[in-house]
Specification:
With about 290 residues, the protein is of the alpha/beta class. The protein contains ten helices and nine strands. The chain folds into two domains: about 150 residues, Rhodanese-like domain (Oxidized Rhodanese, domain 1, 3-Layer(aba) Sandwich), CATH 3.40.250; about 120 residues, Oxidized Rhodanese, domain 1.
Length: about 290
């Protein structure tokens, strides 16, 4: 069986020693970028290797041009996936301690490069511990394999396309950040607050229940159908602050059985690099 969206703790517990499975620890803190690696070295799921959002899942930041987490060059990232032992038939499981907020980025990136057998651990690190599963300290490595990327450019929309489509009634632009950031009331990471005019707000945390698990598939489906209306997934674009947590909404949409939406990887932190691009500060799409 191939896992393509989510995997529960009990199923991973049966397979974490399987050499054909690669487990990737994606714990990361935007306010302390070294914390995730320290936490991994202190304790992690046995067999897991560590992926750092800044170092491994992002490319070079060019101030005034790129987002805070631009996508890395494909060949560079493919080389890292090879080093992590991810080959054609490898089942990948990714996890973090943020209910998938960071891990979903790697889930999306692997799918973008044509690798379908990748799932986010539902509940992440906390639920692994809560279920009394084993842990290991130190740094681990896996035997390398050849990862051959098959990028799907149709999963991405760039900034000029967002500018052109944001008032298109046949397309839907969705901001995945908190309501406070969407309304421009606060902005902890970027120099300008607000949102892209025409966007709707759908915070990614609405995909979760109070225990930090994804809500049931049928509930997710109803949740997204109420937002999307007559617009299908292929006409829906998700963004966030830097193209990371928007992937959580894309994952949830796929898990709900509604198809694969588009990602604007540059997101808000790229949008605001050009002062000619409009911004909005309100509850309503503009």
């Amino acid at each position: 069986m191939i896992f393509k969206t989510l995997i529960p703790v009990d199923l991973l517990a049966d397979q974490f020693n399987n050499p054909d499975w690669a487990i990737i620890d994606c714990r990361f803190s935007l306010t302390d970028t070294s914390l995730g690696r320290k936490q991994y070295e202190h304790a992690h799921i046995p067999g897991a290797v560590y992926a750092n959002l800044d170092e491994h899942l992002s490319g070079q930041v060019i101030p005034g041009k790129t987002s805070r987490h631009p996508l890395p060059p494909i060949e560079t990232f493919a080389g890292k996936l090879s080093a992590w032992g991810i080959g054609e038939t490898t089942q990948v499981v990714v996890y973090d301690d943020a209910s998938g907020a960071i891990a979903a980025r790697l889930w999306w990136m692997l799918g973008w490069l044509g690798h379908e057998a990748v799932a986010v651990l539902d509940g992440g690190w906390q639920h692994w511990l809560k279920n009394n599963q084993p842990t290991k300290n130190g740094v681990e490595n896996r035997p390398s394999q050849d990862f051959n990327p098959r990028p799907n450019a149709h999963l991405i929309i760039e900034v000029d396309q967002v500018l052109a489509m944001r008032n298109n009634p046949d397309m839907l632009l969705v901001d995945s950040r908190s309501p406070e950031r969407f309304r421009g009331e606060e902005e902890p990471y970027d120099s300008i607050a607000g949102h892209i005019p025409g966007a709707l707000n759908l915070p990614f945390k609405q995909n979760l229940n109070n225990a930090g698990l994804f809500i049931e598939q049928e509930e997710l489906r109803t949740h997204f159908e109420n937002i999307l209306g007559e617009v299908n997934a292929k006409q829906t674009v998700f963004y966030c602050g830097s193209g990371v947590t928007a992937a959580h909404n894309i994952l949830a949409l796929v898990h709900a059985g509604l198809g694969q939406a588009l990602l604007y990887p540059g997101s808000w932190s790229e949008w605001i690099t050009d002062p000619s691009r409009p911004i909005e500060k309100s509850d309503q799409p503009g």
